[in-house]
Amino acid sequence: PEKVTVKDLAEKIGKNVSEVMGKLIALGVFATINQEIDFDTAELISTDFGIAIEKEEVKEEIEIGLEQEEDRPEDLKARPPVITVMGHVDHGKTSLLDAIRNTNVTSREAGGITQHIGASEVEVHGNKIVFLDTPGHEAFTSMRARGASITDIAILVVAADDGVMPQTKEAINHAKAANVPIIVAMNKIDKPGINSDRVKQELSDHGILIEEWGGETILVPVSAKTGEGIETLLEMILLAAEMLELKANPKRYATGTVIEAKLDKGRGPVATILIQNGTLKVGDSVVAGSSYGRIRAMINDKGKQIKKAGPSTPVEILGLSDAPEAGDLFHAVKEDKIARQIVEKRKAKDREENLNATAKVTLEDLFKHI
Ligand code: GDP
Ligand code: MG
Questions:
Q1: Distance, CA 268 to ligand 1 centroid (Å)?
Q2: Binding-site residue ranges for GTP
Q3: Contact of 296 with 325, CB cutoff 8 Å
Q4: Ligand 2 centre distance from Cα of residue 97 (Å)
């Protein structure tokens, strides 16, 4: 906003580039057509033409605020995979997540109390894996409807004693539509009399061919009840993640997606976000959907206050003006003013769209009555 190119200035004040350059040279400034000059110089020249100019702060800062710069290859660093668990009701999604977290809690920080923030991080041989609590199909439908994609790998839970069921098929379809690789967790293998070949056959009937049968999908037999196979499942997730070569740039302003949000009586609007790129710091100005604010505090999945969080980290944030919606995109920006302006612009656009919708309805009603 403080600078403008010679070309843009000429265009804005309706003069030829050569005329503008002439004035610049008279001032002792030798600028090329695409060179930027500062506002004061631009104002001097414009005044000379008898034209008053103003800084275009609002418009340009909004664009700067959400500008998606390309990450430089040297800034890209490996990031942990983000996993959702999908599958038919009662096949053991919740139990599996609990088993994974418990394995982890006991091995890493005995007695540690995990706080519910809608996602959690586990560590396997020094590598992090992030699990989203949102049931996979919800995560896929509501988030994808908003253009957000947050899952790197889908764990498809299939109960060995029940096989492929309607929601298993749905889960397969969602994952395929989103182009997200699937790892099958064949659960409840502790149960007597299970027929795993039947499950494998049903999976293959629905387009999931496991490695053992010449396909590409990894299947891990597990029991969320006894813990059998959980370690292997985690190792397979890491292996699959490695092949995806997941990377992000910790050096940029944070961007991500809102996983859940609520209005807390004591703490005000609280949102759990998954940071997908960049690093978020306490004090950062942020925008999420139609809410904005400055990060007052960040809390991780272990309930600890943290000062900064990098790519693939789920964090609860405090300091937003309202509770955003799950699936809203999240951006940190340079300053409060920009965050506020972006939200005002979004709200104005929403109002306009609502008005247009109303106008359309009344117009149609009108014609109906004729
Ligand atoms: P969800 O609906 O997919 O989240 O399934 P839940 O985790 O709530 O599990 C449904 C039922 O299956 C519960 O009664 C669990 O105790 C049981 N269950 C889950 N995993 C296992 C397992 O590995 N073995 C056995 N025997 N039961 C399990
Ligand atoms: Mg459940």
A1: 35
A2: 87-94, 133-137, 187-190
A3: no
A4: 9
Coil, strand, or helix at residue 98? helix
Dihedral pair phi/psi, residue 273, rounded to 5°: -120, 155
Q: Residue 299 carries which side chain, given as an amino acid letter?
A: I
Kindly give the distance from the C-alpha atom of residue 327 to the centroid of ligand 1, in angstroms, as a whole number.
Answer: 28
Whether the pTM exceeds 0.80: the reply is: no
Of the residues 95, 138, 189, which should be mutated to test ligand 1's pocket, given the most ligand atoms within 8 Å of the CB?
A: 95
- Is residue 187 within 6 Å of ligand 1 at its C-beta? yes
Q: How is residue 276 written in tokens?
A: 């997908």
Pick the ligand that lies closest to the CA of residue 96: 1
Q: How confident is the model at residue 167 (pLDDT cuts 50, 70, 90)?
A: very high
The pLDDT, as a whole number, for residue 109 is 45
Which atom of ligand 1 sits closest to the CA of residue 224? 23
DSSP secondary structure string for all residues of 320-351: ESS---TT-EEEEES-HHHHHHHHHHHHHHHH
Q: Are 218 and 183 in contact (CB under 8 A)?
A: yes
SS3 content of the chain, % helix, strand, coil (to 5): 40, 25, 35
Minimal-distance CA residue to ligand 1 atom 25: 188
Please list, in sequence order, all residues whose beta carbon lies within 8 angstroms of the beta carbon of residue 220, skipping any fewer than 6 positions away: 183, 184, 185, 186, 229, 232, 233, 236
> Is residue 137 lining ligand 1, measured as CB closer than 6 Å?
no
**Per-residue model confidence as pLDDT tens digits over 192-224:** 999 999 999 999 999 999 999 999 999 999 999
Look at 139 and 271; give whichever has higher pLDDT: 271
Could you tell me which of 300, 308, 299 has the C-alpha nearest to residue 253? Answer: 308
Q: How far is the CA of 176 from the centre of ligand 2 (A)?
A: 22
- pLDDT tens-digit series, residues 11-28: 989 999 999 999 988 888
Instruction: Specify whether the CB–CB gap between 300 and 321 falls below 8 A.
Output: no
Distance 87 CA to ligand 2 centre (A): 10
Please tell me if the CB atom of residue 304 comes closer than 6 angstroms to any atom of ligand 1. no
What whole-number distance in Å separates Cα of residue 168 and Cα of residue 213?
Answer: 20
Q: What distance lies between CA 304 and its chain's CA centroid? A: 22
| Torsion angles phi and psi, residue 179, rounded to 5 | 60, 35
256 Cβ contact list (under 8 Å, min separation 6):
273, 274, 275, 276, 277, 280, 329, 330
